[in-house]
Inverse folding.
């Protein structure tokens, strides 16, 4: 059984260098056909080529691909993962790739094929991989990860739910609605990460409050992501900002589309940045309760992402025509700083 999928998956995922098409999934008609053809061919060759057990070799390749994709798509995340223990970094790469592929369904080049059926099929694949039946090589890495770490399927299902929400909705009436979206697409990542990062045995906090911090780090990240990408999203006809709060500053969608940075816009942005910082600050508490070896990567991730907010301020709140950017030198300089934070706030001192 295991060998069957191994062989099948090995052929499906062709190029070594990760490319967008590799991230596409079954459920899209032409891909289905392609996959069926390959599976059939593979079943025939199996008779002449008796399978040998190569599970570990296969998994090694699967994780290598996850690593390459993570390194290619998310340079900063990747930097953070290099600070983790080997088993943990592999798990985070596998989770990253699954999240990225889920996001690509809605945002990527195959998004035109998007439909409720595609998401249903993706969810079915999720159940299969949790039950030890991965569909392709990248799924197989996650199957291995969920067998090693006590991951719950719920946040993964919720992320798919977030994609359902994203295709239905392009406006958020108030922060409550936006918060729900942020939970689905990013708070869930925090919940997926805790079982991998581990809670410190010395921690005096209870598990729910640590999960809550992790969730808040996801929310802070997503709010920051939204604030950074206002101009870019407007070009796609999307405004991920609370409509009622825009109105309080005399602003509406048209002001966002016109991409003009006015004093009203700056005032509005100050409040939004303050809110994002609130979530990061709340996440700090939990970061120090994680397993000793996981604090540095999480602290660095927190400080790096939060500094995008500083960059928006440095651009005088022009997130319409400029992309807030944290330069490589600044990113690297933040590593020793986050290291200091991670040791000085260790739960052993609480
Ligand atoms: C150490 C670390 C940061 C681990 C997490 C790595 C991981 C599994 C990331 C997955 C990210 C992903 C692809 C999510 C899909 C949905 C999505 C796109 C969310 C946005 C990410 C940014 O992506 P990007 O800018 O590329 O998006 P677009 O190009 O705009 O499409 C998000 C902003 C969400 C990211 C959320 C997190 C990384 C949550 C981090 C929380 C923890 C690591 C918990 C730590 C624990 C405690 C107790 C604080
Ligand atoms: N350390 C981190 N913590 C949380 N989220 C992060 C972190 N690093 C990156 N991200 C998220 O992953 C995305 C991709 O990472 P990447 O490092 O490629 O950043 P980028 O914003 O695309 O800019 P650049 O590639 O120029 O650094 C980021 O846009 C951000 O949303
Ligand atoms: Mn990005």
């Amino acid at each position: 059984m295991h060998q069957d999928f191994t062989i099948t998956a090995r052929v499906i995922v062709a190029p070594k260098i990760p490319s967008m098409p590799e991230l596409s999934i079954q459920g899209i008609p032409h891909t289905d056909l392609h996959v069926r053809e390959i599976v059939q061919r593979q079943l025939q060759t199996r008779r002449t080529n008796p399978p040998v057990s190569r599970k570990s070799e296969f998994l090694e390749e699967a994780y290598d691909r996850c690593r390459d994709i993570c390194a290619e798509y998310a340079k900063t995340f990747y930097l953070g993962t290099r600070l983790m223990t080997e088993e943990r970094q592999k798990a985070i790469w596998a989770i990253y790739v699954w999240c990225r592929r889920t996001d690509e369904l809605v945002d990527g080049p195959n998004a035109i094929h998007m439909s409720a059926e595609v998401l249903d099929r993706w969810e079915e694949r999720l159940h299969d991989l949790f039950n030890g039946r991965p569909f392709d090589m990248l799924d197989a890495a996650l199957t291995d990860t969920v067998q090693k770490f006590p991951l719950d399927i719920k946040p993964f299902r919720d992320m798919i739910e977030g994609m359902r929400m994203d295709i239905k909705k392009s406006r958020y009436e108030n922060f409550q609605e936006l918060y729900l979206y942020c939970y689905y697409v990013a708070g869930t990542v925090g919940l997926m990460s805790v079982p991998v990062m581990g809670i410190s045995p010395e921690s005096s906090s209870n598990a729910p409050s640590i999960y809550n911090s992790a969730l808040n780090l996801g929310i802070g990240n997503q709010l920051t992501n939204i604030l950074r990408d206002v101009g870019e999203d407007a070009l796609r006809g999307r405004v991920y900002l609370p409509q009622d709060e825009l109105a309080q500053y005399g602003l509406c969608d048209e002001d966002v589309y016109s991409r003009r940075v006015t004093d009203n816009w700056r005032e509005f942005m100050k409040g939004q940045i303050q809110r994002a910082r609130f979530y990061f600050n709340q996440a700090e508490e939990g970061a120090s309760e994680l397993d000793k070896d996981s604090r540095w990567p999480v602290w660095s991730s927190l400080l790096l992402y939060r500094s995008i907010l500083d960059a928006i301020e440095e651009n005088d709140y022009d997130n319409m025509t400029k992309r807030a950017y944290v330069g490589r030198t600044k990113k690297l300089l933040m590593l020793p700083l986050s290291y200091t934070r991670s040791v000085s706030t260790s739960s052993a001192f609480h």
